[in-house]
Every structure is written in C-alpha cells, then in structure tokens.
Amino acid sequence: MAEDLNWAVGGEAGDGIDSTGKIFAQALSRAGRHVFTSKDFASRIRGGYTAYKIRTSVEDIQSVVDRLDILVALTQRTIDENLDELHEGSAIIYDGERSWEAEIPDEMTAVDVPLKTLAEEAGGAIMRNIVALGAACEITGFDVAYLDEALEKRFGGKGSKIVENNKAAARAGQEYVQENYDLDHLGYNIDTTDNDYVLLNGNEAIGMGAIAAGCRFYAGYPITPATSIMEYLTERIEDYGGHVVQAEDELSAINMSLGAARAGARSMTATSGAGIDLMTETFGLVATSETPLVIADVQRSGPSTGMPTKQEQGDLDMALYAGHGEVPRFVVAPTSITECFWKTVEAFNLAEKYQTPVFLVSDLAMSVTEQTFPPEAFDMDDVEIDRGKLVDEDEVDEWLDAQGRFRAHAVTEDGVSPRAIPGTTDAAHMSTGLEHDELGRRTEEEDERVHQVDKRYRKVETARNEEEWDYREFGNPDADNLVISWGSNEGALIEALDYLEADGIDVRVISVPYIFPRPDLTEEIEAADETIVVECNATGQFADVIEHDVLTRVKRINKYTGVRFKADELADDITDKLTEEVPAQ
C-alpha cells in the first residue's frame, strides 16, 4: 500500500511535461488524495531539462522529499538527474523504441512501453505522455477513471473526439503494462478517499485573493514567474467588472496601476525582481502621493536576469528599502498557498486603510507549486473589506480649509488623511510627487516638510499599534531550539519536525508573514538556547533584520542553489547547525 507516493515526468522543454503533470495532479486530487507538486524547468521554449514532480498521500503533505517511486523518463538526462532520489523499489517508464538507449540501474524496475506507437494507434503521437500516465496508473493500482475525469476537464473544450482519443491513449498504456509486466512485487496501490479538494498554486491563490478583495484593475508585463497572476486575472476579472492591461514594460504597468488607484479602484501590479528594479522609480510617487497600491513581487534567482526559472528569496532588502529618500511601506510575505489568498486580501485592506503601498512578496517555489486544500480554506464569507478613510459628500465639510479647499494630505493624529474619490462633490484636490502641503500644493517650507514626513511615518506607527503583526507557530512551543523562517519555507519546516522528532530533537518553529512592520521576537529568541534562521538566499537577509531587532547573533541556514528546501534535507541541515558555534558578536 502506497499512502505516500512520489511520481515524476521529465524530458525537454516542449515535450508537454507541465501539462502531463497537471493532468495527473488533477486526477489524484479528484480521487480525494492530497497533492504537492514541484517543477524544474529551463528558461527556454524548447530544449533543456524540465520535470514535474508530484508527491501524493492520503495524509496532509507540505513539502517535497528526496525520494522518487515512479519516474516517466522521456530522455536519458531525466534518469541521470534523478538517480539520487530513485531507490530499489522505483519503476522507470520509458520508450525503448526511441533512438536513445535507456541506461537504467539494475536495482530499478525498467518498464519499457512503446509510448509513441501506442499514442499513434490511439489517434496521434502527441498523446504519448497520456499513454505514460495510463502505464503509471497500472503500476500504482490507481483507478484510471479518475484520469478520465482530469482529461475531460483538460480537453473538454476541444471536442469529444479529442477527449475520447486521450482516454484511449491512457487505456492503451494501462493495458500494455497489464499484459506485459507483473509488477505486484513493487507493492504500489494508491488508495482513494471521498474527500473533496481544491488544487491550485500560489499565483492562482494571489489572483483569487485579489478578486475576492475587490481588485478591479491590474496592469503588468509578462515576466517569469509572476505572469500567471495576470493570466489568472485575465480569464476572470471581467466577470466582476474589472480589467487587465498588458503594458509595454514594468514602468508603464506600475504607472497605469497608480492611475487606476488614484481614480478609486482597488489596483495592483505584479512582477519579479528585475521588474521591481524598474518600478522603483514610481514607487516613491506612490508613497508620497499616499496612493493605496499592491505590488506583488514573485521572487526568482538574481541579480540582473539571474536564473528566471529558479527559486530564491533574494529581494527582501529591496522590498524593505527600495526607493530613494525615505519611503514608508508595508511588506507582507505569505508563508503558504492559502496565505497567498488571505494575505493578498489583507494587503489591499492595509493599502487603503493607511494609504500606503504594500509589497506582497512571494517566490517562485510557491508560485508554481500546486497543492490540494479543502474548499473551506478559501471561505469567501470570511473576506472582509476595509477601504479606510474614504469620505463622501456628507463628510467633506470637516476636511475643508477656511477657503473651502479639500485637504487631501491633512495632518492628522494617526497620520492617515481623508481620501476622496475623484468626482466627490467639493473634494477636488491635487497630489504631486514633489513635497506638498495639506492641499497637495508644492512646497519647500521647512515646517510643511517636517509635518508631511512625520505624518506619513506616523501612519506606519498607527498600523503597528492597531494591526496584528503576529507569526505562525509549529512544533513544541517550550522547546529550547528555535527555528525562524519566512515565505515558502514553512511547509518544509513543518514536515522536517517529524524527522527531527524521530531523532529526539525538539524544535519550536516560528514562521513570519509580516516583514514590515514585523513581530518583535526578542522574548522568543532570548528564551531559546539556539536560534536558527532559514531562508533561500546567500547572505541571510531576514537573519540580518532579526539580528538588528534583537541585538543577538543567530545561526543561519541559507540555500541559494535555485532549488527549494526539502523536508528531509532541511531536518539534516538543522541537526548539523545545532552543533555549530554561534558567530561572535
């Protein structure tokens, strides 16, 4: 019985690897199984190694692990790249009729299936990957009827003939293995349940959260790995009265989004690090004009063009400090796919409530990972909208000066000025990127400058006191060992706890979704014997922030290979790090 099974398909870019993986992931989720996926892909349309991995279980799963049970290998490189994860009980599906001769270790089970020939007999060579899925169903004892459902969803819009041909291709793969191999010794048998799950990735969750939050305008420029946020919204936002604009570059995208926000719409843009570089010019205008705007940064390996399709959390310093001068902002970093949804909703509320730009910081690993969740994890009835100090015609009078002019940048005790949508009677006003007075008029008066700077930062302090800048906690809250992380590392850490517990190591995990403002972790760190900060970058950007806050050195686990943390690997890293000396003060 395989309650926890790891499957992968690999080949070259252009081989349909991604669509094949998504189809199988959907089939498994429809069977009531939990799914957690990961991708390895090159920065090109064709050529270069690419893979789609699925971990599936009847229990909740949060991470990938260093183990592969079933591998669909379309190239020899696929086998070579995964040798360290294959084991004695692994089965490798390949097409022996192709020009390459597969070199498969003797301890693995080789399953030679004429994928192309069977696909052609079913209706076209393009379906060879579906033949491989049918073969995988037979090897793992998975009911191919669930694959039928996924194929109907995937190809239903292309006509019944395409759907039936794909079903026939899957059956051909299943029957070939059934007739030519006896694989009972492998012991794989994928159980199914009656559970109902939603399957989505982090970018889809951000898009869904934006719509739920009332976002009605999005402008962006295609960039890996943020583009699928725009694709998700493009397919749906018009149903809610919204619009998506594909701009000519990132500068245009943020300026269009700024314009929509000034007009009163909930607005956002999304990009990756290289795009944030370009958007920074406008970022200061967003903050100084006190315009509520959400800017999603889906991080990837940098600097410069870096590795567009690889994982990294290297933009934290930029999110915290980008922009010349002193620019107030909020920085929110979802720690899971569900949190991508909820923190997006919260980002829009923070932006409007405090009239401040909000960086929503995600990363490649979370953006492309597809995971299953119960539908109630995204309960729209729990979504609350807070538009802050929006004033209507009845409230304008209290914000007029002696000459009857609307004070759009009025100095207030909490730092938040009144906000009037253009067209509001008697609330005509201006805003400028130049320093301005309460009316938005350019000024170089010393007192006015001090009043406006203090006001803009005062609303950050107001938010610090009014909002819950908390953290998520796992493991033993009384443990002497403390591990702190941010962003997508949370899932791997949760599962690493099981490995650590098996080795008799007690750990408390704190996962921080708020980077600025952020929770004060002084007491938690002072109470711990050992503190380790985990992140996917080379320099330990969040560790630097923590040390600045608590004036105490912490240990660091930094991964910058372009690949996310795995649970078993991370458990080993934590074990090793606990024995190291803390760096000198």
From TrEMBL:
GO molecular function, one term: 2-oxoglutarate synthase activity
Keyword Protein transport: no
Keywords, sorted A to Z: Oxidoreductase
Pyruvate flavodoxin/ferredoxin oxidoreductase pyrimidine binding domain segment(s): 209-451
A family per Pfam: POR_N
Domain of life: Archaea
Domain Pyruvate/ketoisovalerate oxidoreductase catalytic, first and last residues per copy: 13-173
Catalysis: reaction(s): 2 oxidized [2Fe-2S]-[ferredoxin] + 2-oxoglutarate + CoA = succinyl-CoA + 2 reduced [2Fe-2S]-[ferredoxin] + CO2 + H(+)
EC assignment: 1.2.7.3
InterPro entries to which the protein is assigned, alphabetical: 2-oxoacid/accept_OxRdtase_asu, Pyruvate:ferred/Flavod_OxRd, Pyrv/ketoisovalerate_OxRed_cat, Pyrv_Fd/Flavodoxin_OxRdtase_N, Pyrv_flavodox_OxRed_cen, THDP-binding, Transketo_C/PFOR_II
GO BP terms, alphabetized: organic acid metabolic process; sulfur compound biosynthetic process
Keyword Oxidoreductase: yes
Subunit comment: Heterotetramer of the KorA, KorB, KorC and KorD subunits.
Descriptive protein name: 2-oxoglutarate synthase subunit KorA
Species: Natrinema soli
